[in-house]
Design goal:
The protein has 209 residues and is of the alpha+beta class. It has 5 helices and 9 strands. The strands form 2 sheets. The protein has a 5-stranded antiparallel β-sheet, with helices on one face. It has a 4-stranded mixed β-sheet with strand order 6-7-9-8, with no helix packed on it. Strand 8 and strand 9 form a beta hairpin. The longest helix is centred in the middle third of the chain and has 25 residues. The N and C termini lie far apart (66 Å). The relative contact order is 0.09. The mean pLDDT is 85.
């Protein structure tokens, strides 16, 4: 039909074993622009393969050294595009797909609370806001937390018992003893205060017991 495509191929054990048996000299390194810093130079192996129910051979690009035990397999009918460009394009797509997966797995975007269109819009907006706040939290904490998923951040830092004390001027949240408290302390979260205008102008303060 003349439609260009680029997608993943299912990795059967037989296919993976055949690729891993290929001589090392057949694999060559490329340098995409959208790969995480420690995976800057993955190795690729290009082949023309036949796919069942597909009338024409397609281009297969096996990619190794991306942090996985088994190679990632890309198939495409774009025969002239540089392999670095194709790997880079799919890496960008994976970032989007992982974000959508987080929205479904952790924020339950596929189980919205209302059937009324206006309320659904609010649900989606709140999900986007929550996801962004988790990313800000991860960036502020650092210590290799930047790439952790919201579910991991929730389990380590948010899902914790605490004592809440409300006074006329402050809301004091005292965290119990947890192994992750030093990360919050290093990020300065126990040293800063936030004014909450919608709660009578009270100041929010976090501290560790």
């Amino acid at each position: 039909m003349g439609i260009d495509f680029l997608t993943l191929r299912r990795r059967s054990a037989k296919l993976v074993n055949a690729l891993l048996a290929e001589p090392p000299e057949k694999w060559r390194r490329v340098r995409p622009t959208n790969i995480a810093r420690r995976f800057r130079a993955p190795r690729i192996l290009e082949q023309m393969v036949t796919i069942r129910d597909c009338p024409n051979p397609v281009r297969q690009i096996a990619v190794r050294d991306l942090g996985h035990d088994r190679p990632t397999l890309l198939i495409t009918n774009q025969l002239d595009a540089p392999p670095r460009e194709l790997v880079d394009r799919y890496a960008r797509r994976m970032v989007i797909e992982n974000t959508i997966a987080d929205a479904i797995d952790f924020f339950h975007m596929d189980a919205l609370s209302a059937v009324v269109p206006v309320k659904i819009d609010v649900d989606v907006q709140l999900t986007v806001m929550a996801s962004t706040l988790y990313r800000i939290l991860a960036k502020r904490i650092g210590n290799r937390c930047e790439n952790q998923k919201p579910a991991q951040l929730f389990r380590k830092f948010v899902n914790a018992s605490a004592t809440v004390e409300i006074t006329e001027s402050e809301i004091i949240v005292s965290y119990g003893r947890r192994a992750c408290n030093p990360f919050l302390a290093d990020a300065g979260l126990f040293e800063t205060t936030e004014r909450l205008p919608w709660l009578g102008g009270r100041t929010l303060r976090l501290r560790a017991i």
